[in-house]
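can u pls check wat happens w/ iron/sulfur cluster
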Amino acid sequence: MGGLVRRPLALSASRAADFRRCPLLYRLRAIDRIPEPRSRAQVLGTVVHDVLETLYGLDRPDRGPARAADLVGDAVEAFFAPGGGNEEGGLVVVPHADRDAFRAEAAALVATLYGVEDPQRFSPAACEQYLVTATAAGTPLHGYLDRVDVAPTGEVRVVDYKTGKPPRPAYRDEAMFQMRFYALMYRRIHGVLPTQLKLIYLKDGSWLTLSPDAEALAGTEATLDALWAAIESAGASGEFAPRTSRLCDWCAHQSLCPAFGGTPPEYPGWPGSRVVPVDVTPIERPGGAG
Ligand code: SF4
């Protein structure tokens, strides 16, 4: 028996994307919870997100680019210090000899934000906010919002930072699906439809925005309900089929995947769905009845 605590599941935007791409990948990540080695890109993203959260936690006059660069230096030092997150099972994710290049890359990503917005001109309503809610039909949802901005006039903007390259046009809808997922959670909890969803790509300073309407969010909610029903059904039967795609090239579980000659571990069973109160905030449907 493994030592993992089995806990009832809720749907996050990334696990929803996993199941859509490959049900077996969802199973191995969400149910078996097989550890995956963290990549340099992932830890770089974590460091940059931490810096931006700290930056926006400062008083506005203190959020200049020089202070941001100092925060990057501090965060990178902390990351490379013992217990700072760079070690995994006795192995380092980023070699110590690579520290300067890693720091320069993190600094460049943070500096790029200043070409997109001026952090000294506004204060977010929340950073790294963890939300738990459910759709009206009871699909449990959870996830972190990188940032929420609320204008004095009440408009809400949900912001997500990306440290990887912007997606090619064919994959933009997937990126926006994630944002609609966040908008739906926000609306279920606060009863307010975000005016704008914004993805900021710190690699090149580009961004994608979307102004969701109630109809689009109702469609997202229906998609998530259908997805969760399919996940629960697969969870009951244990049938999570592999679905190959170009993403297999980056999959950490090829050795366990029948599509690549591997054998998955014995199915540990469905851990159950997380129960979340559904009477959070009524959501009106376009056209009336819900
Ligand atoms: S290798 Fe491909 S098909 Fe197999 S689990 Fe990974 S993503 Fe799915």
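The two ends are 44 Å apart (CA to CA).
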